[in-house]
Design a protein that fits this description.
Length: 339
């Protein structure tokens, strides 16, 4: 028989996994009768925390893992800064794992880290909704910019206001044929952005060409740029800024002027977006606040803080539109112009 897990203990005691974790490791944070029920369930099942977990909980510091799809992407580095800043303030260590855009690697990482950290932050998870829901019942986690549609999975996301503003901006400049370069087919965020582009174009009576899925990397921009030129679109919106950087590179190499011949809009407003030639018009995302807000929710859930602390204000961009969704907005620079 397999060794009983924390999820088994939680199920036997009739509590959430996060409650079971607090009961076994920080019982002072929950009601005494609940802690006793969880301990009894653990004893009945023969549950024994891993050696790493026992060592962790003998220390005053806790630890959480942040799992990202691509640590070379500056967007995720900003998210790491936000979560690290808040976690450090609560004496919590953060471990960062890069799964290189592979759902299989993501699951392997979750399995390896379960029981070794107090909880996990999953940034832009590429897991499907059912798999994400299953993992949320095995280990305390918060999904960042991925909504599994399960109320039991704590989620912090960003809005699509900036994407809608991007389409409106291009339409206002006289563009009547736009193109959209999608991100990974497994990206929940890309599906939402693509829907926002489609619906806003339909509302404004603007033609749209879907260029298909492209990796969220700079080197993928070349194929996207070639597809834009074949489509005849006068402007392109990309899934992220790295793709947009690649589009700018390719268009320049082909003698296509930006924004005179083609306007380009990215997404995320990562470091360097204002240093391209021309400077990139892009959707600004409060990535550091996103990381801090997600870390705050996880701390509150696993009992590493007496209550979920308030996330610090965003360094740039608008305030949050709600407790679980942050607003985005368009930042106009030199890569867009009238037709």
């Amino acid at each position: 028989m397999s060794r009983p897990t924390l999820a088994d203990v939680a199920a036997r005691a009739g509590v959430a996994i996060s409650t079971a974790s607090r009961a076994l490791h920080r019982p002072g944070r929950i009601r005494a009768e609940t802690a006793a029920r969880v301990r009894a369930a653990a004893d009945e099942l023969g549950y024994v925390p891993s050696a790493a977990a026992r060592q962790l909980h003998r220390s005053s510091a806790g630890a959480v893992a942040l799992v990202v799809p691509d640590l070379t992407n500056p967007f995720f580095m900003a998210l790491v800064r936000g979560s690290t800043r808040l976690l450090r303030a609560h004496d919590v260590v953060q471990v960062v794992a890069d799964v290189e855009e592979e759902p299989e690697s993501e699951e392997q990482t979750l399995a390896a880290l379960a029981g070794r950290v107090d909880g996990m932050l999953l940034a832009a998870s590429r897991l499907d909704a059912a798999t994400l829901s299953t993992w949320s019942r095995r280990v305390p986690l918060v999904a960042v910019n991925h909504d599994a549609g399960d109320p039991e999975v704590p989620t912090v996301t960003i809005g699509t206001q900036g994407v809608e503003e991007a389409v409106e901006h291009l339409a206002g400049l006289g563009h009547r044929h736009l193109a959209y370069a999608s991100g990974p087919a497994t990206s929940w965020a890309d599906a939402r952005r693509r829907t926002a582009v489609v619906e806003t174009c339909a509302r404004l009576g603007v033609r749209l060409t879907d260029l298909g899925h492209h990796p969220p990397r700079r080197d993928a921009g070349a194929a996207a740029a070639d597809a834009v030129l074949r489509s005849g679109a006068t402007a392109v919106l990309t899934f992220n800024d790295l793709q947009a950087f690649g589009v700018l590179d390719r268009l320049a190499s082909r003698g296509v002027q930006v924004p005179e011949d083609v306007s380009v809009i990215g997404h995320d407003d990562i470091f360097g977006a204002d240093l391209t030639s021309p400077a990139l018009t892009t959707v600004t995302v409060p990535a550091e606040e996103l990381g801090a807000r997600a870390a705050a929710r996880l701390l509150g859930a696993v009992g590493l803080a007496t209550a979920a602390p308030s996330a610090p204000p965003a360094a740039t961009g608008p305030a949050s539109t709600g407790p679980d969704r942050l607003a985005t907005h368009l930042t106009v620079r030199g890569s867009t112009a009238p037709v």
